């Protein structure tokens, strides 16, 4: 599960803060400062995944990317599926364009994709008439 999305400049000034769990403003500032302290000292040639147990609690990870003097990062639970995280982000952003801003619509789309994936795992994509013809 994505817990927060934060965009900040290279000096650590937040440009966008979106917490998906309630955090008082003081806690948001503290978390943002802690994240900046961790990320500002990282070289460019290391992984964009950082264990965040000390900042956000056990089982969390920061995922970040530096673009045009801004840093975009999320923190997520380790139990979350990376495929699910990408599905959620793909419903929101595609090719750099924001597709959907309604969290309800995104949630409905992700639930529908999940339902289709579960139902398609038990169904053969080859029609019986074709599979029967080739002796399957």
TrEMBL record:
The subcellular location is: Endomembrane system
**Highest taxon of source:** Eukaryota
Where are the annotated coiled coils located? Answer: none
Location of the AP complex mu/sigma subunit domain = 1-69, 82-115
Q: Which residues cross the membrane?
A: none
GO CC list: endomembrane system
Keywords (alphabetical) are:
Membrane, Protein transport, Transport
**A Pfam family recorded for this sequence:** Clat_adaptor_s
What InterPro entries does the entry give?
A: AP_complex_ssu (IPR016635), AP_mu_sigma_su (IPR022775), Longin-like_dom_sf (IPR011012)
Name the GO terms of the biological process aspect. intracellular protein transport
Q: Where mainly found? A: membrane
Which family is this sequence assigned to?
Belongs to the adaptor complexes small subunit family.
Its protein name is AP complex subunit sigma
